Each structure stands twice: as structure tokens, then as C-alpha cells.
Amino acid sequence: MELQLALDLVNIPEAIELVKEVEEHIDIVEIGTPVVINEGLKAVKEMKKAFPNLKVLADLKIMDAAGYEVMKASEAGADIITILGAAEDMSIKGAVEEAKKQNKKILVDMIAVKDIETRAKELDAIGVDYICVHTGYDLQAVGQNSFEDLKAIKRVVKNAKTAVAGGIKMDTLPEVIKANPDLVIVGGGITGQDDKKATAAEMQKLIKQG
Ligand SMILES: O=C(CO)[C@H](O)[C@H](O)COP(=O)(O)O
């Protein structure tokens, strides 16, 4: 099980400062969608340059023109690129094909997918690398989480790695770990804490214990 730090509400210098604090306690750093919108793929490039040993995920949430966008994110140095589960199969296949060419990985974000089990089976058959259940900020705001969806994909996914994101904090981490995803994605649960390093260290410890 790995820990990914999601950076959504920062600019590039702030992102780099933040990662310096927690670097040794995370496996993957995510350049979040709002950061890509504000700063472009330059944010991915700068992060990879600053931390060549960390895996960098570009949260592009691709919906179309997938092969091209995966190629551009790969050129910027992303190791993992996200596409939406709601995208057409043709787009998912294009993303997977381009990622293979570039020796990169594709994470599918299941945000807003209604029939999670059916879509997860289809995506698994296409050959994506990760399937991630995700409660975005707008549904977190009304008290939702993805813990039941995580159990659902764990039941049906045979090949892809499983991941979970959306409002995970220290107090909910044990419940997430119990479901045994391959990847736990935490944003505000670390970045919103006064002692980010201690929080990331504690989360890493719990995750490594499994
Ligand atoms: O992709 C995202 C929002 O669309 C976030 O990166 C993801 O939800 C993780 O952040 P948090 O733990 O703060 O919810």
C-alpha cells in the first residue's frame, strides 16, 4: 500500500516547499487539477525536477483527446496520469496505449460514475493501471465518502491496482486501510494540518503496517 499526497490549493513554489517537509513519508506527489489549471504542466515539470526520486501524478482528469494529453503530461515528467472513468472506452484505450509507449501509468478516476462495479470491470478489462474511487470536494461537502465504493471495486477488479481519494483524514484512515487498497490519496488530511511532516509520518506508519 502506497501513500500519495494530493496538492490542490497551492502554487508551484508552495507545492515544492510542502513536499520538502513530507518527502520521506510519501510515495507519490499529485499535482492536482486546480494546480494544473492555474500553472499548466509546468507544475509537473518543476516538481519532477525538484524531486526526481518521487513519482509524480498529473491529475488531468482527461475526458477526450486522451492520447495527446497523456503524451504532453509524459513529456512534462509525469509518471502517472489520470483520466475519468466516465470517458469513452476509445479515450481510455488511447490513454493506455500512449502511456505504454511512454512507459507511464494510467489512473482512472471514478468520480461521478454511477455503476461503479460494472464500469470497474470494463476498465480492468481494457488494462488500466489503477482504478480510483473518489468523492470530490462537492460531495465531501454534503458528507459523502468512497469507503463502500472501495469495497465494491475490491470485489470485482482482478488486474488493476485499486486506489481511494476524497477527504481521507487520520481518523478515517484505519477504515480505509482495512479495505486494503493499493494506493491511498490524501490532500487536506495532510496539507491542512499544522504539523504536516508528523501527520504524513503517522499516516505512512499506519499504511506500512497495513
Ligand atoms: O482530486 C481531488 C479533488 O478533485 C483531490 O486531489 C482529492 O480529493 C484528494 O484531496 P482531499 O484529500 O483533500 O480530498
What distinguishing features does this structure have?
210 residues; alpha/beta; TIM Barrel; eight-stranded parallel beta barrel; 11 helices; 8 strands; binds ribulose-5-phosphate; EC 4.1.2.43; 3-hexulose-6-phosphate synthase; 3-hexulose-6-phosphate_synth; hexulose-6-phosphate synthase activity; carbohydrate metabolism
How would you describe the overall organization of this protein?
The protein is an alpha/beta fold and 210 residues long. It has a single domain, classed as Alpha-Beta Barrel (TIM Barrel). Helix content is 48%, strand content 20%. It is built from eleven helices and eight strands. The protein has helices at 12-22, 33-39, 42-50, 66-75, 89-102, 116-126, 137-140, 147-156, 173-178, 188-191, 196-209, and strands spanning 2-7, 28-31, 55-62, 80-84, 105-109, 130-134, 161-165, 183-186. It has an eight-stranded parallel barrel, surrounded by seven helices. Helix 4 links the parallel strand 3 and strand 4. It is globular, with a radius of gyration of 16 Å. The N and C termini lie close together (7 Å). The mean pLDDT is 97. The site of ribulose-5-phosphate has 17 residues, from strand 8 and helix 10.
